[in-house]
Golgi SNAP receptor complex member 2
Amino acid sequence: MLNMDTLYNQTNRLIQQTQQVFQGLEGNNVNAIEIENEIQEKINLINSNCEKLDTYLYKLSMDQRPNAKMRCDQLKYDGKHLQAALVSSKQKRARREEAANEREQLLNRRFTANPDLTAINIDYAIQHQNSLNNANRGMDEMINTGANALESLRNQRMTLKGAQRKIMDMANTLGLSTYTMRLIEKRASEDKVILILGVVVTLIVILIVIIYFT
Protein backbone atom coordinates (compact mmCIF):
# COMPACT_ATOMS: atom_id res chain seq x y z
CA MET A 1 0.00 0.00 0.00
CA LEU A 2 2.90 2.35 0.72
CA ASN A 3 4.26 2.01 -2.80
CA MET A 4 0.87 2.85 -4.30
CA ASP A 5 0.43 5.90 -2.08
CA THR A 6 3.92 7.10 -2.94
CA LEU A 7 3.31 6.71 -6.67
CA TYR A 8 -0.04 8.42 -6.35
CA ASN A 9 1.49 11.42 -4.55
CA GLN A 10 4.30 11.64 -7.10
CA THR A 11 1.81 11.61 -9.95
CA ASN A 12 -0.37 14.21 -8.27
CA ARG A 13 2.64 16.54 -7.81
CA LEU A 14 3.61 15.92 -11.44
CA ILE A 15 0.16 17.07 -12.56
CA GLN A 16 0.51 20.27 -10.54
CA GLN A 17 3.97 20.91 -11.99
CA THR A 18 2.63 20.39 -15.50
CA GLN A 19 -0.13 22.91 -14.89
CA GLN A 20 2.50 25.44 -13.82
CA VAL A 21 4.57 24.78 -16.94
CA PHE A 22 1.49 25.61 -19.02
CA GLN A 23 1.72 29.19 -17.75
CA GLY A 24 5.02 29.55 -19.59
CA LEU A 25 3.21 29.10 -22.90
CA GLU A 26 1.17 32.28 -22.49
CA GLY A 27 2.60 34.88 -24.85
CA ASN A 28 5.83 32.90 -25.34
CA ASN A 29 6.42 32.40 -29.05
CA VAL A 30 10.19 31.88 -28.84
CA ASN A 31 10.42 28.79 -26.61
CA ALA A 32 6.89 27.51 -27.23
CA ILE A 33 7.98 24.28 -28.91
CA GLU A 34 10.46 23.44 -26.15
CA ILE A 35 7.84 24.06 -23.48
CA GLU A 36 5.30 21.96 -25.38
CA ASN A 37 7.79 19.09 -25.55
CA GLU A 38 8.46 19.36 -21.82
CA ILE A 39 4.72 19.26 -21.10
CA GLN A 40 4.26 16.24 -23.36
CA GLU A 41 7.02 14.36 -21.52
CA LYS A 42 5.35 15.06 -18.19
CA ILE A 43 1.97 13.93 -19.54
CA ASN A 44 3.53 10.72 -20.82
CA LEU A 45 4.98 10.10 -17.37
CA ILE A 46 1.58 10.79 -15.78
CA ASN A 47 -0.07 8.23 -18.07
CA SER A 48 2.65 5.71 -17.33
CA ASN A 49 2.17 6.18 -13.58
CA CYS A 50 -1.59 5.76 -13.98
CA GLU A 51 -1.04 2.42 -15.72
CA LYS A 52 1.16 1.31 -12.84
CA LEU A 53 -1.46 2.42 -10.35
CA ASP A 54 -4.02 0.26 -12.15
CA THR A 55 -1.86 -2.78 -11.47
CA TYR A 56 -1.76 -1.91 -7.80
CA LEU A 57 -5.55 -1.90 -7.65
CA TYR A 58 -5.73 -5.66 -8.08
CA LYS A 59 -3.42 -6.12 -5.11
CA LEU A 60 -5.76 -4.27 -2.79
CA SER A 61 -8.53 -5.79 -0.80
CA MET A 62 -12.07 -5.46 -2.06
CA ASP A 63 -13.00 -2.81 0.53
CA GLN A 64 -9.93 -0.64 -0.32
CA ARG A 65 -10.23 -0.98 -4.09
CA PRO A 66 -13.22 1.40 -4.78
CA ASN A 67 -11.61 4.38 -3.06
CA ALA A 68 -8.22 3.73 -4.65
CA LYS A 69 -9.81 3.32 -8.10
CA MET A 70 -11.62 6.64 -7.71
CA ARG A 71 -8.33 8.37 -6.92
CA CYS A 72 -6.64 6.74 -9.93
CA ASP A 73 -9.51 7.73 -12.21
CA GLN A 74 -9.12 11.33 -11.06
CA LEU A 75 -5.45 11.25 -12.03
CA LYS A 76 -6.37 9.81 -15.43
CA TYR A 77 -8.95 12.53 -15.93
CA ASP A 78 -6.42 15.22 -15.05
CA GLY A 79 -3.92 13.68 -17.46
CA LYS A 80 -6.46 13.66 -20.31
CA HIS A 81 -7.38 17.24 -19.51
CA LEU A 82 -3.72 18.27 -19.72
CA GLN A 83 -3.33 16.42 -23.03
CA ALA A 84 -6.37 18.19 -24.50
CA ALA A 85 -5.06 21.55 -23.28
CA LEU A 86 -1.69 20.87 -24.93
CA VAL A 87 -3.33 19.99 -28.25
CA SER A 88 -5.41 23.17 -28.10
CA SER A 89 -2.31 25.24 -27.31
CA LYS A 90 -0.43 23.76 -30.27
CA GLN A 91 -3.33 24.53 -32.60
CA LYS A 92 -3.50 28.14 -31.40
CA ARG A 93 0.25 28.55 -31.89
CA ALA A 94 0.02 27.10 -35.40
CA ARG A 95 -2.79 29.53 -36.27
CA ARG A 96 -0.79 32.47 -34.91
CA GLU A 97 2.27 31.46 -36.91
CA GLU A 98 0.18 30.98 -40.05
CA ALA A 99 -1.44 34.40 -39.61
CA ALA A 100 1.97 36.01 -39.04
CA ASN A 101 3.35 34.37 -42.20
CA GLU A 102 0.36 35.53 -44.22
CA ARG A 103 0.79 39.11 -42.97
CA GLU A 104 4.48 39.03 -43.82
CA GLN A 105 3.81 37.69 -47.31
CA LEU A 106 1.13 40.31 -47.83
CA LEU A 107 3.49 43.09 -46.78
CA ASN A 108 6.21 41.74 -49.05
CA ARG A 109 3.81 41.61 -52.02
CA ARG A 110 2.57 45.12 -51.22
CA PHE A 111 5.98 46.79 -50.90
CA THR A 112 8.02 44.74 -53.37
CA ALA A 113 8.19 46.52 -56.68
CA ASN A 114 7.28 44.57 -59.79
CA PRO A 115 9.46 45.94 -62.62
CA ASP A 116 7.15 44.76 -65.40
CA LEU A 117 4.04 46.08 -63.67
CA THR A 118 5.78 49.36 -62.87
CA ALA A 119 6.81 49.80 -66.50
CA ILE A 120 3.27 49.11 -67.67
CA ASN A 121 1.88 51.63 -65.19
CA ILE A 122 4.41 54.26 -66.30
CA ASP A 123 3.61 53.70 -69.99
CA TYR A 124 -0.10 53.90 -69.27
CA ALA A 125 0.40 57.11 -67.29
CA ILE A 126 2.40 58.66 -70.14
CA GLN A 127 -0.24 57.68 -72.71
CA HIS A 128 -2.98 59.02 -70.48
CA GLN A 129 -1.12 62.30 -70.03
CA ASN A 130 -0.54 62.62 -73.77
CA SER A 131 -4.23 61.98 -74.43
CA LEU A 132 -5.18 64.69 -71.94
CA ASN A 133 -2.74 67.12 -73.53
CA ASN A 134 -4.12 66.39 -77.01
CA ALA A 135 -7.66 66.80 -75.74
CA ASN A 136 -6.78 70.11 -74.11
CA ARG A 137 -5.16 71.36 -77.31
CA GLY A 138 -8.16 70.26 -79.35
CA MET A 139 -10.53 71.98 -76.95
CA ASP A 140 -8.46 75.18 -77.05
CA GLU A 141 -8.55 75.11 -80.84
CA MET A 142 -12.32 74.60 -80.84
CA ILE A 143 -12.79 77.46 -78.40
CA ASN A 144 -10.56 79.73 -80.48
CA THR A 145 -12.45 78.75 -83.62
CA GLY A 146 -15.76 79.49 -81.91
CA ALA A 147 -14.48 82.81 -80.62
CA ASN A 148 -13.28 83.76 -84.09
CA ALA A 149 -16.64 82.74 -85.54
CA LEU A 150 -18.46 84.90 -82.99
CA GLU A 151 -16.16 87.80 -83.74
CA SER A 152 -16.76 87.34 -87.47
CA LEU A 153 -20.53 87.24 -86.95
CA ARG A 154 -20.38 90.35 -84.82
CA ASN A 155 -18.38 92.16 -87.50
CA GLN A 156 -20.88 91.03 -90.13
CA ARG A 157 -23.70 92.33 -87.97
CA MET A 158 -22.04 95.70 -87.67
CA THR A 159 -21.43 95.72 -91.42
CA LEU A 160 -25.07 94.84 -92.09
CA LYS A 161 -26.25 97.56 -89.76
CA GLY A 162 -24.04 100.07 -91.55
CA ALA A 163 -25.21 98.89 -94.95
CA GLN A 164 -28.84 99.02 -93.82
CA ARG A 165 -28.41 102.55 -92.57
CA LYS A 166 -26.82 103.65 -95.85
CA ILE A 167 -29.58 101.96 -97.85
CA MET A 168 -32.23 103.70 -95.77
CA ASP A 169 -30.52 107.03 -96.28
CA MET A 170 -30.23 106.42 -100.00
CA ALA A 171 -33.84 105.31 -100.17
CA ASN A 172 -34.97 108.46 -98.44
CA THR A 173 -32.82 110.50 -100.74
CA LEU A 174 -34.08 108.74 -103.86
CA GLY A 175 -37.65 108.67 -102.63
CA LEU A 176 -38.18 104.89 -102.91
CA SER A 177 -41.61 103.47 -102.32
CA THR A 178 -42.84 102.19 -98.96
CA TYR A 179 -43.00 98.65 -100.34
CA THR A 180 -39.34 98.76 -101.30
CA MET A 181 -38.44 100.03 -97.83
CA ARG A 182 -40.37 97.16 -96.23
CA LEU A 183 -38.54 94.64 -98.37
CA ILE A 184 -35.24 96.08 -97.22
CA GLU A 185 -36.33 95.99 -93.57
CA LYS A 186 -37.57 92.39 -93.97
CA ARG A 187 -34.24 91.34 -95.46
CA ALA A 188 -32.44 93.02 -92.58
CA SER A 189 -34.63 91.16 -90.06
CA GLU A 190 -33.94 87.85 -91.78
CA ASP A 191 -30.22 88.56 -91.71
CA LYS A 192 -30.51 89.34 -88.00
CA VAL A 193 -32.28 86.02 -87.34
CA ILE A 194 -29.63 84.13 -89.28
CA LEU A 195 -26.95 85.92 -87.27
CA ILE A 196 -28.60 85.00 -83.96
CA LEU A 197 -29.03 81.37 -85.03
CA GLY A 198 -25.37 81.21 -86.02
CA VAL A 199 -24.34 82.57 -82.62
CA VAL A 200 -26.58 80.06 -80.80
CA VAL A 201 -25.31 77.09 -82.83
CA THR A 202 -21.71 78.13 -82.25
CA LEU A 203 -22.27 78.42 -78.49
CA ILE A 204 -23.93 74.99 -78.41
CA VAL A 205 -21.01 73.40 -80.26
CA ILE A 206 -18.51 74.98 -77.86
CA LEU A 207 -20.55 73.81 -74.86
CA ILE A 208 -20.72 70.23 -76.19
CA VAL A 209 -16.98 70.19 -76.80
CA ILE A 210 -16.25 71.46 -73.29
CA ILE A 211 -18.55 68.86 -71.68
CA TYR A 212 -17.12 66.03 -73.78
CA PHE A 213 -13.48 66.76 -72.99
CA THR A 214 -14.04 67.42 -69.30
About this structure: The two ends are 98 Å apart (CA to CA). The chain has five helices and no strands.
